[in-house]
Amino acid sequence: MRYLYFLFLLLVFASCSNEQYGEHSDVNYPIPTVISITEDVAVGEQITIKGTNFITPNSVSLDGISLKIVSESETEIVAILPRIFNTASLVVKNALGRANEEELLIKPIYPASEEICVSEWPNEITKGRPLIIRGTNMDLVTSVALGSTTIEVDGLTQQQERLLVLVPDDLSETSSDIVLRTIVGSTIQSSGSFEIKDYDPNNWEPISPNVILDFEDGDLHYVSGDMPNSLCEAKLNGGEIDKIEANKDNYFSLYAKDIMGTYSMWSYLGSIKYVLDRPVDLAEFHDPYISFLWNSDDNIGSFQLSVTQGTKVGGGTFNPGITDRTYDENAKYDLYTLRPTNKQWHCVTARLKDLVVENWGGDFKGIDILGQINAIEFVFKQINGAYWIQGAYGTENPEDIYDYSVQGNHLFKANIDNIMITDGPYTLNGYPEN
Q1: Is 187 helix (H, G, I), strand (E, B) or coil?
Q2: How far apart, in whole angstroms, are the C-alpha atoms of residue 269 and residue 212?
Q3: What is the pTM of this model?
């Protein structure tokens, strides 16, 4: 009987809650009122919305598209208009879920046709491969015509300076010009035609590596970590190791000691952090890998890899051991740490689409191999290097270089050079023949 009474109370409470706080309740939640909005704002630019009852956090939408809010208060919101939208009424919804009731139509104001222009056409057209066209306001292109084939473009998925479409693999022409149609009704045509090539996914010529960082500028690009400089030091050419021809003049070194007590295997030892002047366009590569020279001196090291693509950041412990080992028998040791190299330089190479990365910001869902890399960061931590058996190299079973019963290694040694994006696996001698 007591349980039935308790259930009755729950039902009464739920009924009262729905009645008191529901849509038809007598509680007068504040409703946003828009008094004015900035007039004649071009697409992609900031708009100022003034009114009342803007209870933070607010949301602003237009034509079903959420606007990025730059700043907000109870009387003013500054937001950025979408680059593409239809004429629609602006909707402001406050933190209480109430939306404004005014109809405030906003009409898109697009750039003039001459402001939508191409600066770089592709060299060729390859069936089944990305076609990249660079220029200004490229996200305002609505279609790409290749001969008799028209490819529709969703501008909301494009970038202002870069247009990317996938070429159909059933094009019948052997050559074609490229014709773009824009959202303002104008057309842009290439000055000549391009050869249309077939693509063999199993047999292609790799493009030259894109070297992101080789330290030849004399800069460490290092962000210090939690340990004092007396215990953890980064410098150029700091290892007691020999250089190889690929090193040129400089390489990066990070050495740490006494990783115990106050400091643990998860202590942050610092980062190599680099923002690219020009993003690396992964769509230009057939099979993008991250490759670099690695030398752990007489110890072992590891890091977490962070990749920034636009506003999204992904990261995780760099674990390339699941990638192709065909050209590197030492890849099997790249498990929870990077391999111990016993003072030798190795080329570590890992397929980007195989790397396991987590969302570190901006709703990152995985490395977009048709996207661009804007920044990278190597976040150094000892992690499972604490379990490494000092002097253990090249055992038949990769697990045999660790003793998980004791954190017996209190050192960390890492030497890195020539961080690059390569078109497939890479070796100390360059691309393998096959």
Answers
A1: strand
A2: 22
A3: 0.82
Residues, the chain, total? 434
Using alpha carbons only, what angle is made at residue 46 by residues 41 and 49, rounded to the nearest 5 degrees?
85
Terminal Cα-to-Cα distance of the chain (whole angstroms): 78
Edge-to-edge strands of the sheet including 125-126? 125-126, 194-197, 175-176
What is the distance between the alpha carbons of residues 202 and 195, in angstroms, rounded to a whole number? 21
- Whether the CB-CB separation of 223 and 271 falls below 8 Å is answered with yes
What does each of the 434 residues of the chain score in pLDDT, given as a tens digit? 443 333 333 333 334 433 333 444 456 789 999 999 999 999 999 999 999 999 999 999 999 999 999 999 999 999 999 999 999 999 999 999 999 999 999 999 999 999 999 999 999 999 999 999 999 999 999 999 999 999 999 999 999 999 999 999 999 899 999 999 999 999 999 999 999 999 998 888 999 999 999 999 999 999 999 999 999 999 999 998 999 999 999 999 999 999 999 999 999 999 999 999 999 999 999 999 999 999 999 999 999 999 999 989 999 888 776 566 778 888 889 888 899 999 999 999 999 988 878 888 888 888 999 999 999 999 999 999 999 999 999 899 999 999 999 999 999 999 999 999 999 999 999 999 86
Q: Which helix (H) or strand (E) holds 15?
A: helix 2-21
- Residue 83's SS3 state is coil
Distance of alpha carbon 12 from alpha carbon 228, whole angstroms: 62
Tokens describing residue 150: 């028209």
Q: What is the dihedral of CA 222, 226, 229, 231, to 10 degrees?
A: -120
Sign of CA dihedral 129, 135, 141, 146: negative
DSSP label at residue 268: -
**Residues whose CB is less than 8 angstroms from the CB of residue 286 and which lie 6 or more positions away in sequence, other chains included:** 129, 201, 204, 206, 207, 423, 424
Question: What is the C-alpha separation between 282 and 153, in angstroms, rounded?
Answer: 20
